[in-house]
Amino acid sequence: PEADMVPLLLLPLLWGGSLQQPPGYELRVQESVTVQEGLCVHVPCSFSYPGSPWSSSSELYTFWYRDWDNTDYAAPVASSNRNKTVKRETRGRFLLADPTANNCSLQIRDARRSDSGRYVFRVERGDSVKYNYKEKMLDLQVTALTEKPHIRVREPLESGRPTQLACSLPGACEGGRPLTFSWAGAAVDSLDPQNLRSSVLTFTPRPRDHGTSLTCQVKLQGSWVATQRTIRLNVSYAPLLTIRLSQGNCTALKTLSNHTSLPVLEGQSLLLVCEADSNPPATLSWSQEGRALNLPQPSAPGVLELPHVGAGDGGEFTCRAQHPLGSQHISFSLSVQSSPNSCRFKGSEAHRSPTMCSSSGNGMQTTSLTILEGEALRLRCEADSNPPAELSWFWGSPGLDATPLSPTAILELPRVGPAQEGEFTCQARHPLGSHSVSLSLSVVYPPQLLGPSCSWEDHGLHCSCSSRAQPAPSLRWRLGAGLMEGNHGNVSHAVTSSSEGPWTNSSLSLNEGLSEGLRLSCEARNVHGTQSASVLLLPGKAVPQAGAVPAALGGAGAMALLSLCLCLIFFCIVKARRRQAAGRPKVMNDEEPVMGTVTLGSQKNLQPDGPPDQASPAEKGPLLGEQQELYYANLTFEGLKPREPRDQEATSTHEYSVVK
């Protein structure tokens, strides 16, 4: 009987537990475990208990309880005994492993905040083994969901090739709370919405998808708890080439299309930038007509700079991009054009060498040309440009009320006169800009003499003489064998000369030395010729000859000579007309007889460009190809003796007439 009582005394001790772990009972488990809300956790656990002959044939059961629950009455949170009811809030979420291998591991699915707390493990086998392992308990902590989804790219993304991306939430497990997936991003916006709600995304990347964002969001079904992760897509794609350029002073870059022609003005600067849009970056190189170009900046292989484009820079330029996914190239033709930059003038009748001139930029260059009056001039303008410029001639400067002269490059001036003096402009119009070059034409001619004209004054004889020429002439007086020029004077005479523009004026005052037979002449000269006119002092009256305005001094002639003078006047008129028809010589030396006293009268007025500061000027001298005018004078001298008539030979030599 005493032996039978021993087991009865031991059982209450086992059931109630003890403060110290009995020999043979051991629990190996992680005492503290943390899991995020909605996720799963596996808690490894193993145990041992002492064997007993009374319990070896009984079924082994394991349980997990809340630490505050009474294991005799309360329901466990997990049980290996199918007949043991577990707590409703943990049913299907807290799962125990098979205890036959002494495995007490606990699988927790869809962790909830309310699951936080301490848990105790209990083992039962028959009536001999019933034990709570309170010496070592499990402390479970459930925190907020902070875990980010994981996006797995199964293979490198390549443009044009379909690929799959998988999204998963670490800590989630099968059988846990269902998860809702959604995808968002520029690369997948156009996809089927059903595809975007799957954890596995199938799509075909494009070059523009490279570098864009893709987001996978995971939401716990039945709650507002959600988490997401965003990645940037790395899409490989073949190069897409573009060439941008800037010309001259323009810094803005413009895009150049493939196989186009690029016209560039010679001398301009050109900057070419070849860019390849690819991933990974392509290797760039430049070539001209198939020949590789060595670039000055190896660090920027796509940049080609031509500071001064020359004629030899024309041809086909190619930028090539080498890439693992394929190579590409883009070409263009560089056409070097020159704006109008040269001209040529030629004087065909003057036998001059061609005058060369050139213009640059947008300005206008002017050259000068001097030509003798009456000569012919042929001007030819040449423009060196590509394509050829359109040439035309103007009188004056283009844009300033210029008068069109010729729509071609040739300008003919058959007979140049003073009226043609001025500026001739050749304009070259070109698509790349217009240029002008001007010729300043100066016309030169020999002297044209007006005078001399003489009048009697209180203190003597006063004569004046004017001449027009280009360049301005010089005037001088001859009195008998004496020569007087410049500005000077004495008791017997005074000479005063002045010039303005093409005109030169000179006056002579004689106070003494007047005698019968005195010859007085005015002479005008410049580098292109000489002209002179003379006055012969005779008694009586005379009519001046053509080419000068004669005046003569003489006494009162006999009335018997009147008829002879009239005949001589008629003879001289006829002879002068014949001389005028023969043309004006460059060097004129006419001696004109003058008689009597007088008043000078002109048949027409001076032109507007007549000699300045002339009180009573004579008519302008004969121009080239013009008729000479006849002037009439009557001079009377007091106190002089009449002169005897000369013979016919003298009359022919000096060409004068005596009026009685």
UniProtKB/TrEMBL annotation:
Family membership: Belongs to the immunoglobulin superfamily. SIGLEC (sialic acid binding Ig-like lectin) family.
GO CC terms: plasma membrane
Database matches in Gene3D superfamilies: Immunoglobulins (2.60.40.10)
Pfam annotation, one family: V-set
Full protein name: Ig-like domain-containing protein
Signal peptide residues on this chain, from the entry's feature table: 1-20
Ranges of compositional bias, category Basic and acidic residues: 640-649
Ig-like domain location: 23-139, 149-232, 239-335, 354-442
Region called Disordered, residue ranges: 601-623, 637-660
UniProt keyword annotation of Zinc-finger present: no
Polar residues bias locations: 650-660
Membrane-protein topology: Single-pass type I membrane protein
Subcellular location(s) per record: Membrane
TM stretches of this protein: 551-574
